[in-house]
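quick one: cytidine-5'-monophosphate bound model?
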Amino acid sequence: MIIDKTIVALDQMSLDEIDHFLSRPENTIEFVKIGLELFVKYGPDLVHKIYRDYKKKIFLDLKLHDIPITVERAIHSLKNLPINFLTIHLSGGEEMLRHAVKEARVSLPNSKILGVSFLTSLEEKDLNELFNIKNSSEAFLRLFQMANLTEIDGVICSPHEIGLVKMHFPKLLVVTPGIRFSDEIRLNATQDQKRVASPQEAIKLGADYLVIGRSLTKASDLSMRIKELSIPIGIF
Ligand code: C5P
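yep, here:
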């Protein structure tokens, strides 16, 4: 079922709202994402609380990006946090990735390390201005190629790049944000997401996990959305 591959992003929520959302009986999603905003505000206590009170798996989306030793030390500071996924920026370079993964294997043995490619907020025009990149597929491919040379577990990418990763680097896990339900896509209710797909489309393209935020946290009918995600994958 898609729900087993769904990670719900707890963005822009207060502690009370998080408690309310995670306590809803129909909310059977087992994996949550905590981003920079919540982590900077509440720190490791929030991670421990969500793990202790709700027994959720946790994706800590910090998108670390600094010189290799600083990223390594930052990961060391997260030692033994109950997390399952942690993000770093692929553009930090191969040495940074190697330092990060090596430290994570010791300090966070239960966590997979995932590399973020280009931020979705960057458009082709920005990539061109910043890096003189004319063809974004080639730029993505170069980043994924470098990631593949390290022991990193997987990458974060939009639905548009899933095929590229799966074709060239099948051993990398693919975690995909930019998900909207089909009716939202039809109504153009995609907010600031630029490259979107429905949960079914993203799974068909080969995504291993989906990150869904507002379509769930702000859903007018959460049980209906949960039902939509609970159809066995073979059926569509
Ligand atoms: O849009 P939604 O609320 O589903 O966002 C889920 C996740 O997608 C966010 O936590 C963020 O990491 C990512 N995102 C993105 N590009 C955007 C907006 C959100 O990659 N434009």
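The pocket of cytidine-5'-monophosphate is lined by residues 9, 11, 33, 35, 61, 120-121, 177, 191-193, 211-215 (CB under 6 Å).
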